């Protein structure tokens, strides 16, 4: 990156996107020697009571739809045209639902600066394509031809917006980018640790949601603490094994970071994956029906990832190497008895060397 | 150990001792080629409605005081004299409150067999002596001159007694002992993993209770998930650093076992250390008073360990290397503001290489 001040664009403006734009906007003011004050935020245009959402944000400095009651900062500027929003940007913060990533990236390819431009992905999950699981930050790198870091952690968006203390993890290839991202994201209440293992970080962010389904199955069966903590522990071990088996040099240390064990604990304690899975077990209805009832037609991250990981493993004849992930899928989608969540762990062990 | 059948004595008969005697009694029947069927259990004699507790146990096969409603098995024999209970024993299972360990061990020194005798410790915590922290299994080894393994995990005693699925970890020096202990403790519902790191296992078992106080402080302050999971994660990192700094070759893998992350999660989710710390914050009363009110005069494991670890660190000028453990102690005992639980984490970081 050059010596001139860095321009930041946040691509996405949901609950998490708005919270993180607010964090960035505080830091561009604090580090005015490094960043341009203004943080542009791409907002998918909607009408709210006859008024454009971008206009409301730019007048009230509040995302009334996705983060009501929180002042984003005067220096957050909402822009409805995504290509317009990234012109001359040096830092692109991707915080989109994953189904939009490719389309948005393709549309940006010819507008982003050819030099002095880097990205960071806050996109959840892995991309399932041709029976392969892809790392979003690497996909963004391929499309845009720039470096892309990733951020993930035990971060409930509303708590970050309320400035409750929490931690997060940033992973990137280039330590110099790491320093810049630290300045852009670290605050007193949002404690950043920078690591090198972007694959491990993103594997954790995807697979934790499957483990949370397992925790929910335990809750639905009214299992006690011993069983539930065994499921969470096995989940952590399988997450690590999955990373090391399919994504090369995933580091054990990554699982001690906020993106690893902390995010897993939070997701298995609260979180809608856990809740919906518990309701699924209690009701006996198909999971699609429960998702419809509880999530207004949205799909759970955990159920989608569970299906993808199962198909990925099963086409490689490796389901038996991941007994917990496999048991969870079979309970959710193949009418396996819910009790198999614990029964299968009695007979199948997983070891990571 | 010799080719003749192994005699097992469980030294202790509280809630956990009785549950574990029941597990052993199932396995001595199952592995009748390895073990004598009879499992002797030392019971500190008490009168229950005018009748001796040992007599009740031997008639009803139930510890009506400490594990009511659960059949221990006909082959568990309660013995009121501890020296009598270990005569000819090949396996000693220590599951006593830690304040009785030395006295009991001293009294056993001249009665236990000189050969073919090994022990396993289920004692919680570390022993604080002359401003040093000692590993109980090693203390037992010193006094008795026999090997002593250790067992610890995410094991709520009543859930084990009800045969709910759970996992545990056994650590021992000698792999042959490991095989024997696996046979004595592993069941369909009590899943044993044997490792070599007995120090790491016992460090986890002690320090998790301090972290649970931290989780309770967060709950008392009504902090959200981001803060609480940051505290638990920092706790895990400090547990590991403590082990590696003061106990030599503690293994990172140990923290992925049931005795590590799983036990930590359970203790921070339920558990009385967490509950009492939360009540302490809400009430504003001194912790000793809260302990008296809530625990009938008993002391919490976490508060005692917190004091011992703090004094241990402070005499070595190392409190700043363990900011979470230090902050918890200061909140509990030095009137530090409870908010320092998070505030101190903002400014102090801990890294394990």
TrEMBL record, chains A, B:
Q: Which InterPro entries match?
A: 6-PGluconate_DH-like_C_sf, 6PGD_dom2, G3P_DH_NAD-dep, G3P_DH_NAD-dep_C, G3P_DH_NAD-dep_euk, G3P_DH_NAD-dep_N, NAD(P)-bd_dom_sf
Q: Which Gene3D superfamilies match?
A: N-(1-d-carboxylethyl)-l-norvaline Dehydrogenase, domain 2, NAD(P)-binding Rossmann-like Domain
Q: Name one Pfam family in it.
A: NAD_Gly3P_dh_C
- What EC number(s) does its UniProt record assign? 1.1.1.8
The keyword RNA-binding is annotated on this UniProt entry? no
- Where are the coiled-coil regions? none
Q: Specify the Glycerol-3-phosphate dehydrogenase NAD-dependent C-terminal domain's residue ranges.
A: 197-341
Kindly state which reaction or reactions the protein catalyses.
Answer: sn-glycerol 3-phosphate + NAD(+) = dihydroxyacetone phosphate + NADH + H(+)
> What enzyme class is recorded for this protein?
oxidoreductase
**Record key words, sorted:** NAD, Oxidoreductase
* Domain (Glycerol-3-phosphate dehydrogenase NAD-dependent N-terminal): residue spans on this chain: 7-176
Has keyword Glycosyltransferase?
Answer: no
Entries under PANTHER family matching the protein: GLYCEROL-3-PHOSPHATE DEHYDROGENASE, GLYCEROL-3-PHOSPHATE DEHYDROGENASE [NAD(+)]-RELATED
Give the family this protein belongs to, as stated in its UniProt record. Belongs to the NAD-dependent glycerol-3-phosphate dehydrogenase family.
Protein's UniProt name: Glycerol-3-phosphate dehydrogenase [NAD(+)]
Q: What is the lineage of its organism?
A: Eukaryota, Fungi, Fungi incertae sedis, Mucoromycota, Mucoromycotina
